[in-house]
């Protein structure tokens, strides 16, 4: 836990002490980082757009071609296991999962979307590698298309931006002197 912060003594009107804690935040620089993209083949016309969006974001942030690998899985339900295995290799700074689950087209929408979401969380927590949620969950095909970059936003692009930021932040988090309890022995 970082305890280093700057105390600014401010003799303002009330003589209050203003604290200015040290702020840690990730940068948006992808150079030197390695990324895996795990792409669901279900709704492939759209998921390939998400992957393209993710690659576009990484490229704009300075990634090199050889630092990005794409892994394809049958459906969103399979994303977590593949992401976990990939993260366990230790070869990647972040794993970006992309998929599309459409309520109107999926009788067991809640199971597929819900299990994918909780599995992705587990994959990240169990491996300590950021695993990003780039899954579009939409009510209709039209909604899904809009979120895959056909009209405006692209969830793959957004997930990749977050991947760079969180990978950079995790790289900054180092043990700095431990806690007060630890120092007291
Ligand atoms: C079976 C299924 C259905 C009905 N719908 C979707 C979907 O909208 N999006 C998606 O990514 N995957 C879907 N799947 C496939 C499941 O994710 C999974 O691949 C299969 O159930 C096999 O485990």
Can you put this structure into words, describing what you see?
- With 185 residues, the protein is of the alpha/beta class.
- The chain has one domain (35-172): Rossmann fold.
- It has helices at residues 44-60, 79-88, 109-127, 141-147, 155-172, 180-184, and strands at 6-8, 18-20, 35-40, 68-73, 94-102, 131-138.
- Strands 4-3-5-6 form a 4-stranded parallel β-sheet, sandwiched between helices.
- Strand 5, helix 3 (109-127) and strand 6 form a beta-alpha-beta unit.
- The chain is globular and about 60 Å long.
Question: What is this structure's SSE topology?
Answer:
Layout: E1 6-8, E2 18-20, E3 35-40, H1 44-60, E4 68-73, H2 79-88, E5 94-102, H3 109-127, E6 131-138, H4 141-147, H5 155-172, H6 180-184
Parallel strand pairs: 3-4, 3-5, 5-6
Antiparallel strand pairs: 1-2
Ligand DLZ binds at residues 40, 42-43, 74-78, 99-102, 105-106, 112.
């Amino acid at each position: 836990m970082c305890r280093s912060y700057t105390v600014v003594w401010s003799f303002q009107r009330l003589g209050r002490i203003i604290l200015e804690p040290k702020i840690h935040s990730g940068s948006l620089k992808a150079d030197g980082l390695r990324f895996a993209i795990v792409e669901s083949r279900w709704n492939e016309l759209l998921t390939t757009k998400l992957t393209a969006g993710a690659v576009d974001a990484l490229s704009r942030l300075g990634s090199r071609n050889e630092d990005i690998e794409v892994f394809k899985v049958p459906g969103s339900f399979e994303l977590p296991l593949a992401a976990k295995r990939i993260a366990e290799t230790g070869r990647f700074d972040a794993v970006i999962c992309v998929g599309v689950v459409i309520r109107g087209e999926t009788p067991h929408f809640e199971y597929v979307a819900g299990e994918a979401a909780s599995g992705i969380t587990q994959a990240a927590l169990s491996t300590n590698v950021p695993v990003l949620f780039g899954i579009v969950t939409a009510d209709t095909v039209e909604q899904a298309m809009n979120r895959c970059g056909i009209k405006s936003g692209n969830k793959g692009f957004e997930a990749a931006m977050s991947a760079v930021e969180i990978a950079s932040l995790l790289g900054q988090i180092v043990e700095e002197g431990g806690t007060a309890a630890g120092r007291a022995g």
